[in-house]
Amino acid sequence: MIKLAPSILSADFSRLGEEVENLEKFGADIVHIDVMDGKFVPNITFGNTIIKDIRKRCKLQFDIHLMIEEPQRFIEDFAKFGDIITIHYESDRHLDRAVNYIKSLGKKAGLAINPATPVNNIQHLIKELDLVLIMTVNPGFGGQSFIPYTLDKIKEVKALSNKYNPNLLIEVDGGISSDNIKQVIDAGANVIVAGSSVFKDNNMEANIKKLKESF
Ligand code: DX5
Ligand code: ZN
Fold first, then answer.
1. pTM, whole model, 2 decimals?
2. Domain encompassing residue 58
3. What is the 3-state secondary structure (H, E, C) of the chain?
4. Mutation test residue for ligand 1: of 144, 145, 204, the one with most atoms within 8 Å of CB
5. How many domains does the chain have?
6. Which pLDDT score is estimated for 69?
7. CATH number at residue 164
8. Is residue 173 among the annotated active site residues?
9. What is the Å distance from ligand 1's center to 194 Cα?
């Protein structure tokens, strides 16, 4: 089953509670939450205090995408309100430890790879993971264009999933719209993050409907 995971990075932060309530009301499956530290990526968003407050406003799963250096410092904090905790391959030198730490806290463990990071680098971890996030743009900002070569990487992860971990969630993030959503799904993605294409024109209901109809 394909899941749509709107990224609140493109939401109106002055009414974030209402935005996540509406995501639930209008058929989103998962809430994708981008945490950025201004160091791993050249942008800063928010931390756990905000996530704690929006947690009260919606029942959907929270998928926390940590774009921060040394994420192990904060995993325990984010695990309090998150259901899936995703860290970046490029941000931690002890990934096996980090992944097992997330799982020991009873949470789903995700590993993200930047566009230039080869899928081969994570093949031994595939069995351990609940989710692989293939970045389809360079992380840091919403509204960027999809990088076409990442389609081959989705197919590579799908092949590894078939072989080693059939229940793996294969997530894509960046530049996804109704124009290319079918392509990423055909390549093997089953969790689709979408920021600007969900929140654009202040018309979340119609945008979610259109994306889901394009599956
Ligand atoms: C980018 C973030 C994305 C972002 C996607 O670093 O990880 O989740 O919100 O935004 P769009 O869908 O607009 O490319
Ligand atoms: Zn993200």
1. 0.98
2. 3-213
3. CCEEEEEHHHCCHHHHHHHHHHHHHCCCCEEEEEEEECCCCCCECCCHHHHHHHHCCCCCEEEEEEECCCHHHCHHHHCCCCCEEEEEHHHCCCHHHHHHHHHHCCCEEEEEECCCCCHHHHHHHCCCCCEEEEECCCCCCCCCCCCCCHHHHHHHHHHHHHHHCCCCEEEEECCCCCCCHHHHHHHCCCEEEECHHHHHHHCHHHHHHHHHHCC
4. 144
5. 1
6. 98
7. 3.20.20.70
8. yes
9. 7
